[in-house]
Amino acid sequence: MSAADQNANPQEGSPVPERSGVSHLEGIGEGVEFRCGYVALIGNPNVGKSTLLNTFLNRKISIVTPKPQTTRRKVVGLLSTDNYQVVFLDTPGIIKPKYLLQQAMMGAADSAAADADLVLFMMDATRMKGDLTVDLGGLLKRFQALHSPAYLIINKVDIIRKPDLLPMIAAASRMHPFKEIFPVSALKHEGTEQLLASIVKVLPVHPPFYPLDIVSEQSERFFIGEIIREKIFLYCQEEVPYSTEAAVTGFQEQEGGKTVITADIYVTRDSQRGILIGKQGAMLKQIGSAARRDIEAFLDRPVYLDLRVRTLEGWRDKKQSLENLGYKA
Ligand code: GDP
Ligand code: MG
């Protein structure tokens, strides 16, 4: 994370910059064919897109939970070596939007796919046994106008019977001329190195878009908000996580090395405040200490985390609220 980002608008998450104005060329030798490009992770909810990004970066930057629709915004992860820089774009899973927030989420997925030099369509192997035309067909139809090459990634092969794999690959390749099809386990790191090697080969020859020593240009504040949301997804049930947003409001280094972070958790109605706070504050305490531990690991320093729960009536359906929270509504 670059230090310059720390004062950015907490929810803004800088846009993917223009391809001009490159100034990160130090250390890149003459005559070396440096490759750099955008790779979008696209798929239904819960197929393992964020897990794959974390596996590639060897670091947890995108939040992962067993619940669908955890990822709400485009998450940029940078994987750089002396020879290449892959700009991975993790995206929200494709759904039929029921409220304005979900529309904004689908916008993030669409724009990532449109920006990409390579699209990775990701499927969950455990869900591919039945009628492929439903899941995969829906995805392909939505993105049929894309010109960039596409790979099909069949994830979670660690939990299927190996003989089931070949028929899946055959059926999928009949549906679309994928440039490559890779069975992987993002969780168990199976097949992911071969996939990465293949990704790098199709990237354009181009200087890096970002400095080579950062893993994202999105701000620390953005990732801290994401960590808090992840804990809410883990500990709260039913509609509550889907009705919740977290926004860092303060970030202060104190003498003695502790960083004091204040954050607001927004819910859509008052009754959800009670659930999030819990009996004698027990739920909020649980969320807060789990989030604080992860934030400390993320920032690599001690943190004091102060969470407030506020009602922002119907925020998921209000254009202005969504924009204030940094969504493109
Ligand atoms: P996303 O919604 O597509 O970003 O999916 P996530 O990365 O959040 O993962 C959803 C769930 O699937 C989590 O519980 C992950 O631990 C699990 N998962 C992801 N990849 C794999 C895999 O390769 N194998 C298995 N068994 N589970 C996985
Ligand atoms: Mg995700």
Fold and architecture overview:
This protein is an alpha/beta fold and 329 residues long. It has 2 domains: 29-202, Rossmann fold (3-Layer(aba) Sandwich); 220-324, GMP Synthetase, Chain A, domain 3 (2-Layer Sandwich). Helix content is 32%, strand content 20%. It is built from 9 helices and 9 strands. The strands form 2 sheets. Strands 2-3-1-4-5-6 form a 6-stranded mixed sheet, sandwiched between helices. It has a 3-stranded mixed sheet with strand order 7-8-9. Strand 5, helix 4 (165-175) and strand 6 (180-183) form a beta-alpha-beta unit. The longest helix has 18 residues, at 282-299. The two termini are 26 Å apart. Mean pLDDT is 90; it is low at 1-23. The structure holds guanosine-5'-diphosphate and magnesium ion (MG). Guanosine-5'-diphosphate (GDP) binds next to helix 1.
Topology (elements, then pairings):
Blueprint: E1 35-43, H1 49-57, E2 75-80, E3 84-90, H2 100-115, E4 118-124, H3 132-142, E5 150-155, H4 165-175, E6 180-183, H5 192-202, H6 220-235, E7 245-253, E8 259-267, H7 270-277, H8 282-299, E9 303-311, H9 319-324
Parallel strand pairs: 1-3, 1-4, 4-5, 5-6, 8-9
Antiparallel strand pairs: 2-3, 7-8
Helix pairs in contact: 3-4, 6-8
The structure holds guanosine-5'-diphosphate and magnesium ion (MG).
Guanosine-5'-diphosphate (GDP) binds at residues 43, 45-51, 64-66, 70-71, 93, 155-156, 158-159, 185-187.
